[in-house]
C-alpha cells in the first residue's frame, strides 16, 4: 500500500503548501483588536500596506471573520472590476488595482472601510473627510509572529494524536534573518525542505 | 459548551481501494454532555495538497444520525461510501493527492467537531482525457446563443489584431527560422514518430526518427529523452506562479558526438518501458502530471533540432490494488529461461522494493544478503548529481566515490550504482549492457531506485 510520507510526523499533508481561502481565513494569526475598534467609526478607513506575501490578505481575512456583516471584495488583476457596493463595512483586497475614479467613489460612500494595497491612499481618502489608519504589514512580521504562524499551520495539518514537529524560536529567528518579512518566501522554503525530508523519511526540522 | 470526540475506523484498515470501490467502516462518537446533534454527516472526498492551488472533489455523502447524544455514552454508526474513481492517491514533490473520509457533527451554538481519516486509492483506469469533465456546449440553443457573441467579439478585436499582426508575424518568423529552417539546413526534413499516444503503465512507448542530412556537419550527439513532470500553479493574478518538478527524466543517447554526413540516411529506433507503477498522467485544475518525449540533434554553434511529443500514461488495467507495497518489477521479457541466479536476484530486488517505507523490513532483507554479490547487466547513464541517496544498513562507502543513474532494463527497475574513485574512468561513462558484480546496499525511496555498489566490472 502506498503510505503517506506525512503520517510519520502525525500530519496528513505538508503544512507549508497552498491552502484554500477558507483554511487561510481559519488559520489567520493576526492581532486585529486595535483595527477592529477603529471600524466602529463611520468615517474610518484602515489600510494594510505591503508587498506581496507579507500578510495583507491574511489580515483582511482575519477582519472579515470578526466582522460577519462586512462584505469582502477582491479586485482582480484582469477582467472587469466587481461593482463597488455602498454597503459598509466593506473590505477591499488589492485596492491599488482600482482606478482613481473608483477609489473616489469608495471614499464618497464613507466608512468604515478596510483596504489591502501595495500603495498608500491616505491623501485621497483624507480629502473626503475620512480618517485613515495605516498598518505597514511588514512591521508586524517578527520572529515571534513567525514562530506562532508556522506552529499554527503545523497544528492545522495534524492527522492524529501524537507529537507533531514544531518550529523552535531559534529556527524562527534564523528564518527571519534569512527572509525578513517575506512570509511567502518562508513558506516556500519550508515546503521544499519539509517535502524532501518527508519523502526521505527523515526527522524534521533538521537539527540546529 | 458541549464537546464531542469522533473517531473513524475503516472496516479494512491498511489496504488500498480501487477507484470507485466502496469504503466502509464506522464512526464512533462520545459526548461530554447531553447534546442535540442536527446531523452527523459523513463524506468521502479527494483533495490535492502541495505547492499548487488546492483542487478537490466530493464523491459521496451520508447523514448517519440526527438526534440527541447522552453524556458519556459511546455511539457507533456504520457507513459505506463510494470512493472517487479518479484521481488516484499520489505523493510527489509538488503535488500530492489524498482521499479522505470526514465525519462532522453539526451542533447548535458550538463549533462543529470533525474528524478526517485518509485512505489510499489506486486507479485501474483513467478518464478519456485524464481531466475532469468540463461543460460542453453541444446543444443547438447553446450554439445559437454563442455564435453571435463569437462574431461580435471577433469584429471587436479585428482592429486590435490588425495592429498586432506585424509583431505576431515577426515572432512567428523568428521562431520558424530558429526552430525549423536553420536546423533543417543541416538535418534536412526530420521525421519523428512515437506511438502509442496513450500507453498503459507496464507497456512500452516506442518510436523512430529518420532524416537525411543536407550538409556534412559535426554534432554533439543525438538523444531521446522521456520525461514525466509535475506542473502546478499557485496564486492568481500577478501572484500566479507556475512550478515544475521532474519526476522522471531518462536520457537515451542514440548517437555519440561525431559527424553527420551529407546524403547519408540516419534512422534511430527507440523504446521506453513505462514502469507498471508509473505515475499516470493527471490533468486537474492547477495540478498536472505530464509525460513527454523529446528527440534532439545537438548541433554545435547552431540551433539544435528538437521536437517534443507529449503522451498520456494510463494506469494498467491489470494492476490490482496491492495489499503490500508496490513492486515495480514486471515479469522478465527475455525469451531465454532465467537461471537460478537470475531468479534469486529478481526475488531479492522484489523484497528490497517491497520494503519501501518499512525500515525494519529493509534492514532484515539487507542483513540477509550482507555478504552476497550479484552479477548484473545495467545500462549506465549520467552521473547522479541531482540526489545523493541515503544509505540505510551497514554499507561502507568511501567519501569520494560517484553515484551513477543506471537501469536494469531486463527487470525494468531503476538503480543508483555506487562506483569507487579507484574504478576505471570508462566505468563512469554512459554505456549499455554494463556487466559487473555488485552488492545491494539499500533503497532510495525518493526516486524508487535500488542502491547497488560496484564490486568489480566484468564488461
CATH class of the largest domain in chain A: Alpha Beta
β-sheet strand percentage of chain B: over 45%
CATH class call of the largest domain in chain B: Mainly Beta
- Would you tell me the structural class of the helices and strands of chain A? alpha/beta
Order of helices and strands of chain A: HHEHEEHEHEHHH
Task: Please give the number of β-strands of chain A.
Answer: 5
Q: Major β-sheet of chain A, in short?
A: 5 strands, parallel
Average pLDDT metric of chain A: 89
> What percentage of the residues of chain A does DSSP assign to strands (E)?
5-15%
User: Ranges of chain B with pLDDT <50 over ≥5 residues?
Assistant: 131-138, 321-337
Shape of chain B: flat
Distance between the termini of chain B: 75 Å
Please name the fourth-level CATH homologous superfamily of the largest domain in chain A.
Answer: P-loop containing nucleotide triphosphate hydrolases
End-to-end C-alpha gap of chain A:
34 Å
Tell me the domain tally of chain A.
2
Explain this structure to me?
The complex is a heterodimer of chains A (208) and B (459). Chain A has 208 residues and is of the alpha/beta class. Chain A has two domains: 7-19 and 140-199, no CATH class; 26-76 and 84-139, Rossmann fold (3-Layer(aba) Sandwich), CATH 3.40.50.300. Helix content of chain A is 38%, strand content 12%. Chain A contains eight helices and five strands. A five-stranded parallel β-sheet of chain A has the order 2-3-4-1-5. In chain A, helix 4 links the parallel strand 3 and strand 4 (113-117). In chain A, helix 6 packs across helix 7. By secondary structure, chain B is an alpha+beta fold. Chain B folds into three domains: 4-122, Immunoglobulin-like; 148-314, Immunoglobulin-like, CATH 2.60.40; 340-457, Beta Barrel (OB fold (Dihydrolipoamide Acetyltransferase, E2P)), CATH 2.40.50. In chain B, the strands form six sheets. In chain B, strands 2, 4, 5, 7, 8 and 9 form a six-stranded mixed β-sheet that branches. In chain B, strands 11, 14, 15, 18, 19 and 20 form a six-stranded mixed β-sheet that branches. In chain B, 32% of the residues are buried. The A-B interface holds A 1-5, 7, 12-14, 17-20, 52-53, 76-78, 94, 159, 188, 191, 195-196, 199-202 and B 14-16, 49-54, 56, 89, 91, 93, 96, 98, 100, 116, 118, 120, 122, 234, 236-239, 321-326, 357, 359, 390, 445-446.
Amino acid at each position: 500500500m502506498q503510505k503517506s510520507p506525512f503520517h510519520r510526523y502525525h500530519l496528513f499533508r505538508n503544512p507549508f503548501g497552498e491552502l484554500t481561502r477558507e483554511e487561510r481565513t481559519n488559520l489567520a494569526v493576526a492581532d486585529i483588536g486595535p483595527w477592529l475598534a477603529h471600524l466602529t467609526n463611520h468615517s474610518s478607513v484602515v489600510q494594510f500596506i505591503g508587498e506581496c506575501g507579507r500578510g495583507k490578505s491574511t489580515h483582511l481575512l482575519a477582519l472579515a471573520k470578526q466582522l460577519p456583516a462586512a462584505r469582502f471584495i477582491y479586485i482582480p488583476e484582469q477582467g472587469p472590476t466587481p461593482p463597488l457596493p455602498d454597503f459598509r463595512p466593506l473590505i477591499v483586497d488589492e485596492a491599488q488595482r482600482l482606478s482613481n475614479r473608483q477609489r473616489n467613489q469608495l471614499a464618497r460612500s464613507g466608512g468604515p472601510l478596510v483596504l489591502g494595497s501595495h500603495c498608500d491612499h491616505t491623501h485621497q481618502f483624507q480629502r473626503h473627510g475620512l480618517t485613515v489608519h495605516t498598518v505597514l504589514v511588514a512591521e508586524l512580521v517578527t520572529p515571534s509572529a513567525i514562530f506562532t504562524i508556522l506552529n499554527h499551520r503545523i497544528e492545522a495539518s495534524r492527522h492524529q494524536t501524537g507529537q507533531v514537529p514544531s518550529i523552535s524560536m531559534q529556527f524562527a529567528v534564523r528564518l527571519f534573518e534569512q527572509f525578513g518579512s517575506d512570509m511567502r518566501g518562508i513558506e516556500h522554503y519550508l515546503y521544499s525542505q519539509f517535502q524532501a525530508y518527508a519523502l526521505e523519511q527523515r526527522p524534521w526540522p533538521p537539527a540546529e | 459548551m458541549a464537546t464531542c470526540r469522533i473517531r473513524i475506523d475503516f472496516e479494512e484498515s491498511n489496504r488500498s481501494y480501487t477507484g470507485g470501490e466502496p469504503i466502509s467502516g464506522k464512526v464512533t462518537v462520545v459526548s461530554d454532555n447531553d447534546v442535540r446533534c442536527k446531523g452527523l454527516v459523513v463524506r468521502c472526498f479527494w483533495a490535492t495538497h502541495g505547492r499548487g492551488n488546492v483542487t478537490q472533489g466530493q464523491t459521496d455523502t451520508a447523514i448517519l444520525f440526527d438526534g440527541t447524544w447522552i453524556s458519556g455514552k459511546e455511539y457507533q454508526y456504520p457507513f459505506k461510501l463510494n470512493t472517487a474513481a479518479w484521481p488516484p492517491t499520489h505523493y510527489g514533490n509538488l503535488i500530492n493527492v489524498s482521499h479522505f473520509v470526514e465525519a462532522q457533527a453539526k451542533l447548535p451554538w458550538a463549533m462543529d467537531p470533525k474528524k478526517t481519516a485518509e485512505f489510499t486509492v489506486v486507479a485501474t483506469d483513467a478518464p478519456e482525457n485524464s481531466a475532469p469533465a468540463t461543460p460542453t456546449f453541444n446543444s443547438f440553443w447553446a450554439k445559437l446563443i454563442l455564435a453571435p457573441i463569437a462574431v461580435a467579439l471577433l469584429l471587436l478585436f479585428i482592429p486590435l489584431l490588425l495592429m498586432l499582426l506585424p509583431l505576431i508575424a515577426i515572432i512567428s518568423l523568428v521562431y520558424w527560422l530558429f526552430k525549423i529552417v536553420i536546423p533543417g539546413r543541416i538535418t534536412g526534413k526530420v521525421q519523428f514518430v512515437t506511438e502509442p499516444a496513450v500507453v498503459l503503465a507496464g507497456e512500452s512507448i516506442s518510436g523512430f526518427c529518420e532524416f537525411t542530412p543536407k550538409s556534412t556537419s559535426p554534432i554533439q550527439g543525438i538523444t531521446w529523452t522521456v520525461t514525466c513532470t509535475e506542473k502546478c500553479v499557485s496564486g492568481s493574478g500577478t501572484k500566479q506562479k507556475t512550478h515544475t518538478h521532474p519526476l522522471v527524466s531518462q536520457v537515451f543517447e542514440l548517437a555519440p558526438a561525431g559527424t553527420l554526413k551529407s546524403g547519408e540516411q540516419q534512422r534511430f529506433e527507440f523504446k521506453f518501458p513505462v514502469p507498471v507503477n508509473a505515475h499516470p498522467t493527471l490533468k486537474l485544475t492547477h495540478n498536472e502530471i505530464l509525460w513527454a518525449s523529446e528527440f534532439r540533434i545537438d548541433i554545435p554553434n547552431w540551433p539544435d533540432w528538437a521536437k517534443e511529443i507529449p503522451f498520456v500514461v494510463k494506469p494498467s488495467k491489470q494492476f490490482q490494488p496491492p495489499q503490500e507495497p508496490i513492486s515495480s518489477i514486471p515479469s522478465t521479457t527475455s525469451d531465454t529461461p532465467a537461471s537460478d541466479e537470475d531468479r534469486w536476484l529478481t526475488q531479492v530486488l522484489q523484497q528490497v522494493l517491497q520494503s519501501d517505507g518499512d525500515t525494519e523490513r529493509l534492514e532484515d532483507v539487507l542483513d540477509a544478503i550482507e555478504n552476497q554479490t550479484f552479477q548484473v547487466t545495467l545500462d549506465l547513464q549520467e552521473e547522479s548529481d541531482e540526489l545523493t541517496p541515503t544509505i540505510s544498513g551497514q554499507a561502507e562507502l568511501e567519501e569520494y566515490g560517484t553515484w551513477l543513474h543506471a537501469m536494469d532494463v531486463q527487470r525494468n527497475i531503476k538503480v543508483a550504482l555506487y562506483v569507487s574513485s579507484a574504478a576505471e574512468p570508462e566505468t563512469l561513462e554512459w554505456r549499455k549492457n554494463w556487466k559487473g558484480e555488485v552488492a545491494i546496499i539499500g533503497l532510495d525511496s525518493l526516486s524508487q531506485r535500488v542502491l547497488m555498489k560496484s564490486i568489480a566490472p566484468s564488461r
